[in-house]
Amino acid sequence: MSVPTTRFSNEDDMSLVNKCKAFIETYTMSQWDWWPLQPRVPGLTPGHLRLEWEFCGETLYETISLQESTLIQQTLDAMNEHPPKCYCCKVRPVQLSWTTIFEHIYHIIWKALPIKATSPSPTALTQLSKANLRYTPTRNTCANISPSLPHGKQPLPPQGSPPNGNFVFSIKDMWGFHNIENIENHSQLSDPMFFEELKKRHKSHRWCFQHWLSPYRFRYCRFVQFEEILDEHVSCVGEALPDHHGYTTDYEYDPRPPTAKMPLIDPTHFSVLLRACNTICYSSFLPVYVHKCQHIPADRRFLTRIPQKKGTYDASSRVHAPSLNYINRVAFGVEAGYFPSLAFFLAYHVFLILSGFSFWIYWMAYLPEDLQNASIPLFTIIMLIGTFWGLFGKRISIS
Predict the structure, then answer these.
(1) Domain locations in the chain?
(2) Residues 104-136 as b or e (16 or more Cβ within 10 Å = b)
(3) What are the residue ranges of helices labelled H in 97-189?
(4) Superkingdom of this entry's organism (predicted)?
(5) Residue 33's beta-bridge partner residues?
């Protein structure tokens, strides 16, 4: 595996493919998911350079000034050429065997069983049997320890643990309102677990054909403000951060304004994080040239950038409180955003064109003299493509 490098570039990508990407994104006013192609290379303005680096198997770009490039280059020169324990070069070998296959099938069945909450697993029974053998302090021992805490004081949480709070995540429904999900923060929560939970919560609010067949894919999140305008109905007011409206002590995140700039996580970077493999990747059995597992580093680098609310945000529990304080009706979090997928749009167009021409070839093979009716597939293709863009083209303008 090659060692990832950080590069500086002062040249624009003038290839025809990149020009087509720029034209489509400019015309539709929306960023696209160009997989299996590389993301669009942005143009450079005078006095700026492009910083390029590898992350999760993709090349990412950031436009920086000449002064910033000098500081970054000095930092890179002061570092080792390549750390001996670098997560980006850590290869996770996948041994394709019947044992691993049955383990994955077992995990799928175990998650699908409704009795898993009431039936303890063999591991839990083993831990429980070991716990019974541990020493249990007597009542006198507990009595001697309890007075050590001053009256009215609560025991402090362990040092270094994140504060108890929730990440507010929303998915817009078909009526234009938002379904709110509170993702609890805890000491074991890391970037891979958080983004995997985001995909799981998003999938629970989407229909099956929406999740698998929609050409608009869940690829990023917007940092927005929510407000309960109607009872039990939450709406998105717009992009905002808690500090923009004076909520400085109710949320925890870093960096904060004025040093932070919107969005706190770039949509292109967000897309890479959401497309990374889960902890259990069921595509790992495929050959390397078909699927290559890409995992997010197990740290909290991106997690700390998302505003964390102290407490939960639930609109349905406050229906019978007409005199509720306005502060409790407002929340800040992330909203699911979507990119048009090049792969899905091409697949649908290829399917429509091939089906129409297949019928035309069949017609001409058995009825070569009926040319008038042979033109029906052509008009059918035009009608189907027009219907497709009538349904999904409006979504691009709305996005």
Answers:
(1) 7-89, 166-340, 344-398
(2) eeeeeeeeeeeeeeeeeeeeeeeeeeeeeeeee
(3) 98-112, 122-132, 139-145
(4) Eukaryota
(5) 341
- Measured between alpha carbons, how far is residue 316 from residues 321, 322, 399 in Å? 11, 13, 28
In this structure, what are the phi and psi dihedrals at residue 331, rounded to the nearest 5 degrees? -150, 160
- Token pair for 350: 């290829």
The DSSP 8-state label assigned to residue 187 in this structure reads T
**How far, in Å, CA of 172 to CA of 231, rounded?**
16
Helix axes 267-275, 191-204, angle to 10 degrees: 80
Q: Does residue 321 register a pLDDT over 70?
A: no
Whether the pLDDT of residue 398 is over 50: the answer is no
Query: pTM for the full model?
Result: 0.70
Three-state DSSP class for residue 359: helix
- Tell me which residue of 196, 215, 207, 212 sits closest to 281, measured CA to CA: 196
CA 337 to CA 171: how far, in whole Å? 9
Residue 54 structure tokens: 């590898």
Identify the pLDDT of residue 399.
45
Of the two residues 222 and 122, the one the predictor is more confident about is 222
Rounded CA gap, 20 and 23, in Å?
5
pLDDT at 171: 92
234 backbone dihedrals φ, ψ, rounded to 5°:
-105, 135
